[in-house]
Task: structure prediction
Amino acid sequence: MTHRTRALLQIFSSALLAIALLATTAGAQSRDSKSSDMRISQEVHHQLALLPNYTVFDNLEYKIDGDKVTLLGEVTQPVLKDYAGGAVKSIEGVSQVDNQIKVLPLSPNDDQIRRAEYRSIYGFDTLSRYSMAAVPSIHIIVENGHVTLEGVVANEADRDTAEIRAKSVPGVFSVTNNLRLDKKAG
Result:
């Protein structure tokens, strides 16, 4: 083997080694990023679930994009929107919070519908088990007489039953059923 061939072979080997190291580093960074996103997601979920004044009549959701968290959903009290933003800003690894939570309008009629919806849904035997958590898993969002069901149920029958019960409440203009099925239950 000539000196020039050895030199080219050495350069080629070094290049392959550098490419392999870059691929390994990029993979590790990707895993670290996913791990960080998962940790932030779990912490955001935990902080939102612990908020004072968070009830079955509020719906809090979020999206994570790196170190930015976007808060979404609807709340009945303006202070809950502020609490949510503050709680998420305090999480290590979060540098920016875009608080897009909508504060629902004050309405005695909507409050009456909320109470009636709660009794209709959670007072029904097959759905009453969902009321046992600190924050029940079926959220009832009422805005100007329009009802949206958010959250998680165990099966399609419970999803359908909740919708039927919600539609049975007098004074409701429409019902949107956004209930999802619990993947762990299936």
